[in-house]
Amino acid sequence: MQQLPRELLPLANRFYRSHHRSMKANGQQQIWVLRTPDICACLCLQPVETGHWLTALLVAPSLRTKGLGSQLLRQVRGEVAGPIWLFCAPPLTSFYQRSGFEPTAQLPESLSSRLQRYQRSKSLVALVSLPN
Q1: How far is the C-alpha of 27 from the C-alpha of 129, rounded, in Å?
Q2: What is the mean pLDDT of the chain?
Q3: Which of 18, 32, 46, 95 sits most deeply, having the most CB atoms within 10 A of its CB?
Q4: Whether the model pTM is above 0.90
Q5: Are 73 and 80 in contact (CB under 8 A)?
Q6: Pairing of strands 51-59, 102-103
């Protein structure tokens, strides 16, 4: 696992595009990847008030069910200080719970308003992983 330096951010976006995803990394985020040697899993962490907001977790479809997403989540949790929040579709809740995330109603204001906006058009659950 590694945090991509900003100059390699295009590699993450190429990974997302190669799997026909509209996800996109930007320079304000920390980009974390697993490589084999090419990127096989990626996620983005956006700094927010007292922690980070996790977005854009993607594992290459041919490598799913091998534990790579869980591995990346656990390793990032060990490297990043403060809480990590995310929004997910209800069917994904158990996946994230196995990696230490729990449902929460306590969100930083910036995420609370964003979640309310997103929930107008889709069903989402807010989860948090607190530091050990």
Answers
A1: 23
A2: 95
A3: 32
A4: yes
A5: no
A6: unpaired
